[in-house]
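Supplementary Text 2. Reproducibility record for the structural model of the 457-residue chain.

All settings were left at their defaults, and a single model was retained for analysis rather than an ensemble. We include the record here because the model underlies the residue-level annotations in Supplementary Table 4.
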Amino acid sequence: MRSLLWRFFLWSGAALLTVASSPAAEHPLMRDFIGICGHTVQFNPKLYSPIGHLVRDYHPVEWDLGGKAEKLPPFPLTANGVDWEFVYGSWKTAGWETDACLMFETIQENILKGKTSLLGDYAASLAKEFGPSSRRKLIQSVEIGNEPGQLSDACYREIFTTTAQAIRKADPALRIATCATTTGPSHRYAKSLDLFKDKTKLLDIITLHTYAQLENWPTWKRTFPEDPRLNHYIPDVENTIHWRDQYAPNKEIWITEYGYDSTTKQPDPKSDFAKWVGVTDTQQAQWIVRSCLLFSSLPIQRAYLYFFNDEDQPMLHGSSGITRHFQPKPSFYALVHLQKTLGNYRFSKILRQDSNGIWLFEYRDDSGHCAWVAWLASGSDAHREVTLGGIPGELLSCEEMPLSANPPSITKPEPQDATIRLTVGESPTYLIFKTNEKKKQPESLSENRENCRREGF
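Retained model, structure tokens:
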């Protein structure tokens, strides 16, 4: 397995290579990068609005068509009476941009077979009723399936082709995304990207789910995002980027699920999750934010966090919310702070990642401000003093990631000889500088490599 240091050099190189080769492919602003997974009538659009404006809905096609998929729904109502105009309309009013994940997999394959005409008409109707060109303008993108592993590859390809063609014709402005994908063979939770090699003209976005899963059953133990023992968390994204660059250049990549479970309870010793291992509320906050920072350094366009709320269940995906019973957890405050601090910034470059676990990323806005984000990637509750040289300008503020409504108070360091000394921990520290520089073009790959060589990376 590659060392974490070498792997991270590859991440930075891949990102810069893509940006350098296509000026239009610069990293998005953080406010246009951070998303959250919601769920239909349960999602409270006002409560979560401080963390961003991108929401992904698990949209059950079975609600629309009924369990036997026999006729079109009476939009804006579903077959079971849910009013999408009310649901998605309330999200729009609160400022959210909606990605609807159309979950065809909730209907059995034997029912879906032979329904090509109905599925095409359904997709066209949904696009005309809710797409960007409709009078309602409630949905900006759709995913054709979530994790449709129980559907055969042949069945899924037919669904994708039929619905994507219908959407393209009905509303070309409605962007089309794949289901969760993998660069390997199809499996229970993802479809192989090879299924889309001849369908790239029908899609705008490639999606994947990635979790920092260190162990599978029976513990389902997750770990910190920079853990060198992980060989799939970031590498899965890297592999998708490589596939995209080879077979579907200029298509966007979205991470549509990542996250961590944190609960106040112990698992039931008699349940299937008796040996399940969660993380603490503090770790959830730290590891979500650091994951988001890592993802933002890659040539991808969005990362949707799973999940918005939980009911404090000690099981896999049972406590992934940033709220618990709709009350904010530490991760909620950490994400609000991330959005408030870096929302107008985009990733610029990696400044440091060393064997002592010190990570330092640079972000820039368009008005001459520069943000440095520093943290300790050890997976333990540790702190370390560090000297940061070559500061880019006047230090305006220094804040540590909060875990509550009351942010921690830290002493603003006094720069000396263009260096700053501060204590760095597992919670990222944000340093905002005022510079005299305007927006710069991204480094070329060769310049980045030379800078890494000069710094000893």
